[in-house]
Amino acid sequence: MKKSVIRAIKEKLQREFVLEKPTNLSFGHYATPIAFSLAKELKKSPIAIAEEIATQFDLGEIFQEVTPIKGYINFKLSESFLNQYATWAIQNEALFGKDDQTETILLEYVSANPTGPLHIGHARGAVFGDALARIGKHLGYKITTEYYVNDAGNQVDLLGLSLYLSGREHILGLHVNWPEEFYRGEYIIDLAHVAKTELGDAIFEDEANIKTLSVWGKDKMLELIKSNLADVGIEFEQFVSEKSLYDKWDESFVKLQKHDKTYEEGGKTWIRSTELGDEKDRVVVREDGRPTYLAGDIIYHDNKFQRGYDRYINIWGADHHGYIARVKAAINFLGYDEQKLEVLLAQMVSLLKGGEPYKMSKRAGNFILMSDVVSEVGSDALRFVFLSKKSDTHLEFDVDVFKQEDSNNPIFYINYAHARINQIFAKAEKSLSDVQEVTLENLNEEAHNLLFSALLLPEVLEDAFNSRQVQKLTEYLKNLAASLHKFYNENRVVGSEDEEKFLKLFAVVALSLRVGLKLIGINAKDKM
After folding, report:
1. Could you tell me the keywords of this UniProt record (predicted)?
2. Sheet architecture: strand order including 104-108
3. Among candidates 25, 92, 3, which has minimal Cα distance to 451?
4. How does residue 496 score in pLDDT terms, banded at 50, 70 and 90?
5. How far is CA 466 from CA 337, 340, 346, in A?
6. What DSSP string runs through 399-446?
């Protein structure tokens, strides 16, 4: 719809312009402030320029009215244009909101350490990344989703040690001196019992087996993580092991040296990351010759950029904000364009239950398990609430709100709108095929505006993806559902003179609700 409007306006103006949406639809569906930018060039007032431009447009096919208002040029779309688009949309649901973007994108998200189950902080990044991928693919982008498995660091060794000591204490009944740092939580004890079943008691009798337990435990945790993600409908196209890339370190290190971006000091090797905005230079090789954690990121991004995508998007936890400058610097030092990398941050989540802090999971130790919240409110509610705010802002929600069956629960309210439309069709004893060819004309202003709002989904999707703000889609769905409920409560539908027109209008609303929900991983309910 918007593209058709832009083409029609550009044909008359023969120049680039900004297209906006007035907050008050009574002014028009779209507006442009181009008269203000032309004022200096034409040496006329914006008001006079807007009045002259408005007279150039033909009315009927696309525009019902083109009106100059205080220097703005406002465009009201014709009923015939909206009707034509509405008919196409309900006949081509699979194509509604689709686009023909061709950019290739490697999207990496979650990438939680495979040392424990996912917590709600991981869940927010997981849901955000999955929704971004779904929307982007719908728009035509060639997106590959990837999980980076951090299986080469001390954390995996610590997992093996924690399992070993837990097995000695809880299975062999031996006294154990626990180190200051280890993985806590009942899941470690449970995992030790699984290890006993699969590997035998002897696995806990010799420290030499800690390495075996590390690899075994990492694989089990990765299986659990995949299961946690599958419970909310998230699957990755590929997993990349950090450990498998470490034999490429020499290759990446040579590239850094080639560009003269490393130096030796204090027995360590550093990169000159301050040259590109980092607060200090960073160590990439320790005194003992072992690569640092940053070296792992350098190898991984070297590997990523070798794969030749047009763009790379990383979704990281907010605690990784300080890593952005150093990783981008390293990418530049490897000889790539660091501007091709976007890093999006997912802030932590505060969870309440009945207004009180949600209890930590004993199984997890000191955090709230994603699986516990899913079992409490369901996958749909979890997805919707995690997408209801910009990902880099703090999110607080009460799980009890998402058990309510009223307008306070947004996912219930949206689903109820979709189910209500199906119920209205049933009450009218009509099907979509009965009304899809009905001409939408002589609609009242509320119906006209509701139709326009329902047809906005494609540009909402485009805006949500381009701005990386998926909450624009959830907000749109809430507002569209509220408009539907309000219209139905204020207008007689079944048995009215305009029954078939209203049914077709409602079919378009249902289409946008259904497609929009699907793109955030939720199947709209037909019955409530």
Report:
1. Aminoacyl-tRNA synthetase, ATP-binding, Cytoplasm, Ligase, Nucleotide-binding, Protein biosynthesis
2. 238-241, 142-149, 104-108, 311-317, 341-346
3. 25
4. very high
5. 20, 14, 17
6. GGGGG--STTSHHHHHHHHHHHHHHHHHHHT--HHHHTT----S--HH
Give the orientation angle of helix 445-454 with respect to helix 471-490, to 10 degrees: 150
pLDDT in tens, 236-294: 999 999 999 988 999 999 999 998 999 999 999 999 999 998 999 999 999 998 888 89
Distance between CA atoms of 92 and 160, rounded to whole angstroms? 54
Asked if residue 327 lies in contact with residue 301, where contact means CB atoms within 8 angstroms, the answer is yes
Amino acid at 68: P
Please, what's the b/e burial string for 173-205 (b: 16 or more CB within 10 A of its CB; e: otherwise)? eeeeeeeeeebebebbbebbeebbeeeeeebbe
Within 10 A of 30 (CB to CB), how many other CB atoms are there? 21
Structure tokens, 113: 């350490």
Q: State the Cα–Cα distance between residues 31 and 56, nearest whole angstrom.
A: 15
Spatial contact of 369 and 348, defined as CB atoms under 8 Å apart: no
Could you tell me the two tokens for 248? 């490429």
Task: Quote the pLDDT of residue 364.
Answer: 66
How far apart, in whole angstroms, are the C-alpha atoms of residue 332 and residue 339?
A: 9
DSSP conformation letters of 124-150 = HHHHHHHHHHHHHHHTT-EEEEEEEE-
Span 363-396, pLDDT tens digits: 666 788 899 899 999 999 999 999 999 999 999 9
C-alpha dihedral, 49 to 52 to 57 to 63, nearest 10°: 60
Of 401, 400, 317, 399, the residue nearest 350 (C-alpha): 399
Evaluate if residue 360 carries a pLDDT over 80.
no
pLDDT digits (tens, 9 = 90+) for 406-432: 888 999 999 999 999 999 999 999 999
Cα 216 → chain centroid: 32
Residue 302 neighbours by CB distance under 10 Å: 22
Eight-state DSSP code of residue 119: B
